[in-house]
Amino acid sequence: MNAPLQKVETLRWRNDHLEMIDQRLLPTEFKMVRFGSAAEVAAGIRDMVVRGAPAIGVAAAYGIALEARRLHVENEQTFKCGLESAFKQLAESRPTAVNLFWALDRMKSIWQSRQQEDAQVIAQRLLEEAEAIFSEDIQINRAIGRHGAELLKNGDRVLTHCNAGALATAGHGTALGVIRSAVEGGKKISVIADETRPFLQGARLTAWEMVQENIPVTLITDNMAGFMMKSGEVDAVIVGADRVAANGDVANKIGTYMLAVLAKQHDIPFYVACPLSTLDFSIATGDAIPIEERSGHEVTGFRDCQWAAAGVNVRNPAFDVTPAEWVTALITEKGVLHSPDTERLQQKFTCRT
Ligand code: MRU
Question: Could you tell me how far CA 297 lies from the centroid of its own chain?
Fold first, then answer.
């Protein structure tokens, strides 16, 4: 058994503020940024200071807690309107990851059940709920890691896409959590990180996390994945998810669909690691999952460097949907579900306790 891995604090509550790593700057600069209001947190989510489905949910919950603390000294009407506006701003920050709406719903039900109470008491209760969402996320990711690690063999070379690591969650990670848990359990696992154009979460964030912990990692550009699979250099693919529809279709970072098709073609298991808060039973199939379209500037260049011809038309869908039939298994905190479909998902997960 090896020592527990991952010491990155993606988000933390300090001195009545939320602090988050500015993930836009990694890996060249490590900077924690302070947030004091829901509007600031909503902007941080929209601008990708924090990203990754579970981390977005946790940040939004703290955004509500911050706003309640900021406004509890105001009169009742201002407190109420301010909180309503905070829920709206945070819900509008990014559309695809359902964890955001799940966390906001959880915060809203606390607020709604306490409306007769003093604003200071409500604010305290909302902070406690945000802290519970934070700590539960780490426990959930550890459980995902334990279940997922059993699917990996000693020596496996695991390809992953985007960043579904500690930086995308409150800690440990989902897809990278499986890898961490397998390594903690004594298995030798190496990671192949897709660069993940256009925002480079793989090159910047996944590679950074793995290098920090001495887990062997090899970076490839996204268009090399087929070559690697055909050459027999990939034993499994593990990705995270932003939303899983009731039939098991999976929305995740753009490029995931391409990997699932390739994995199927090469008979390589394609695993999706995600918490139950990523399952959206209100949506029958992946066709109804809203796909965020981000600024074309992310495609025409990166940071200050622009390389595409000025004036070119650009598309930038940030996510795609992988049909359930190409998912070998979903790895959740409640265990592994092979060949997910509507019936199996209902049977295994509709009771969420
Ligand atoms: O645009 P991002 O960086 O928020 O996209 C993140 C992903 O697609 C992750 O794979 C997903 O949120 C799962 S994170 C545990």
Answer: 23
